[in-house]
Amino acid sequence: MTSPESQTPSRRLFLSTSAAAVAGVGLVACSDKPATATGAASAPVLGTTGQHAGSAHLKPGELDTYYGLWSGGHTGDVRVLGLPSGRELLRIPCFVPDALVGWGHTNESKKIMGTKADGSLRYTVGDTHHVHASYKDGNYDGRYAWVNDKINSRVARIRLDYFVCDKITKLPNVQGFHGIFPDKRDPVDAAVNYTTRVFCGGEFSIPLPNAPIEDDTKYRSLFSCVDAETMEVRWQVLIDGNCDLVATSYDGKLAAANQYNTEMGARYENMMSAERDACIFYNIARIEQAVKEGKVKTIGSSKVPVVDGTREANKDPKTALVGYVSVPKNPHGVNASPDGKYFICAGKLSPTATVIELAKVLDWFDGKIDKIDDTIVAEVELGLGPLHTAFDGRGNAYTTLFLDSQVVKWNVDQAIAFHKGDKNAKYVVDRIDVHYQPGHINASQSETVAADGKYLCVGCKFSKDRFLPVGPLHAENEQIIDISGEKMVLLADHPVRGEPHDFVFFKRELLKPKQVYDLDEFPLAVKDPKDAGVTRNGRKVTVRMTSQAPAFEPREFKVRRGDEVTLIWTNLDKIQDLTHGLAIPDYNINFITNPLETASVTFTADQVGVFWYYCTHFCHALHLEMRGRMYVEA
Ligand code: CUK
Ligand code: CUA
Ligand code: CA
Q1: Range of 443's domain?
Q2: Which of 63, 162, 287, 461 is least surrounded by Cβ atoms within 10 Å, i.e. has the fewest?
Q3: 207: domain CATH number?
């Protein structure tokens, strides 16, 4: 190990060089010149033709080159951004009701979110941290993304063709579900070179099954595997310590979670009492073999098979399902390098990053290495409060330093050489101040085989003085940094409503969004205006409705007070961007349908009178005229 002072540039030196970098940013902002040193004289190459990193500014009408998927934090949604501009394009509601699309109001979204016996939503709060997308051949394949809800231990899947949440799964016997990562291929079947599993780390230990037990030595946590297609929980692993973030290897053989609470303490003093914690490695093929052989138990009313991953049960590497690699004090974050060779754990309470070589972890499982800690190939000092790491595909890692309010760029090979004893190995390449207290970081295509080393986004937890004050709640500050050159260059600040945590961003070509639905996606679709109208079955009334700008069909309908009304609505407009809304005054109903989409709501007609249902989404010159009457008779 070394002090940061022995690695150039030192913080002191950096402070003087950063003035030059700031001047460079000023230049970009004022003159539109590219910020990279090499491109000083040439015009910026941007947007649709953009090949070079260098500016976050797009001219009006220019398209971004990357899609970004951002976790929404408390709003329980996923934000879709265009990069490098940072423009927000969409919010995809998942865990929390949303007023625009009627998420949590339509029957279809309520079914996905989960309801109580009385039909009301079981949960209306969420806490999303991590978004990751499905892989094929080590790169994103545009099928799905997943996001976690830490509060209620749920994982949501998003279809990336329509940008909608289509399934939510609750993990049994898990509290504080934090890290999430899809696998990148199957560990045994060579033909399955795409994501079929999603791994979920349980952060809090609880009694299993849950009961009001005070003795915290009886608590445990679980690592869960969810099937990417069915979204059912395939299996769980009972472990010692906890799971925080999750990473997966490119060969599909390993998943890992960093553990900050190997002490299994219930209070923070206890959680930070040990000098070292761990990164836990899961041998996926062996776990699934154990499940197949029935070496499992179940917990409480859950039917999910649980294998034993405790230290005691996994002492022999040759049969071990999991291995615990020791990592300094309360590590935060584990990330897979795009060359497929290393996992990197940042120290948080230790100023270090630990580099673990995956080939050696597999050697340990094969009994070729005695001590699992010999899989550590570097443990180097980076600065104070290292949290998360991104990669440029050129051998460099970028780690956020929460306490130093910096991003440090460091070279992984040099760090390994330094750790081996080459004291001349200069592993710190550059440092840049960010504003302030960064958490997550990601680079364009970072955790794929196609890491392109162009841009870095940093989620800063504090913005302090960077934006106009708006009362006590400050915006967070997301910054974009050009990493195409040797030195990092700060390009732009973006205010963001708290608290988004994590994100990924990748080439726009990897997604093939559909902008018009297929009618057959919806079993209830009203395919022809002639099928619109009211049918009655006792007190249950079904209203089938269609819309074609600027009219709903039917234009009016009658129900009786006390009827349970289900209104099924298909938007038959089939050209893109022709979305309609449907609101019914005093009935707490407002939702949209996109072209050829069907959605439904169910309500009790409890107020007598005339109610103008009307379109809430600007669609046509006669948008205001697009309305009809619901008569509720006594
Ligand atoms: S945790 Cu948020 S800054 Cu939930 Cu990924 Cu590290
Ligand atoms: Cu239809 Cu506005
Ligand atoms: Ca600890």
Answers
A1: 26-55+383-497
A2: 63
A3: 2.130.10.10
Among 71, 130, 181, 504, the mutation site with the greatest number of ligand 1 atoms within 8 A of its Cβ is: 130
Ligand 1 site, CB within 6 A: 129-130, 178, 245, 332-333, 387-388, 439-440, 501-502
Q: Which helix (H) or strand (E) holds 67?
A: strand 66-71
Quick one: 508 and 615 in the same domain? no
d(CA 626, CA 613): 9
Which ligand 2 atom lies nearest to the CA of residue 550?
A: 1
Question: What is the pTM for the complete model shown?
Answer: 0.91
pLDDT of 56 reads 86
Q: State the CB neighbour count (10 A cutoff) for residue 39.
A: 18
Tell me: the pLDDT tens digits for 70-128? 999 999 999 999 999 999 999 999 999 999 999 999 999 999 999 999 999 999 999 99
> Looking at the 3D structure of the chain, how many domains does it have?
4
| Ligand 2 proximity of 582 Cβ (cutoff 6 Å) | no
Q: Are 396 and 429 in contact (CB under 8 A)?
A: yes
Give distance in angstroms: CA of 279 to centre of ligand 3. 11
Does residue 617's CB lie within 6 angstroms of at least one atom of ligand 2? yes
Query: Of 419, 312, 434, whose CA–CA distance to 18 is shortest?
Result: 434
d(CA 419, CA 426): 11
Strands (E), 72-130: 77-83, 87-93
Q: Is 549 in the pocket of ligand 2 (CB under 6 A)?
A: yes
User: Residue 42 — very low, low, confident or very high, per pLDDT cuts 50/70/90?
Assistant: very low
- The residue type of 447 is E
Atom of ligand 1 nearest to the CA of 461: 3
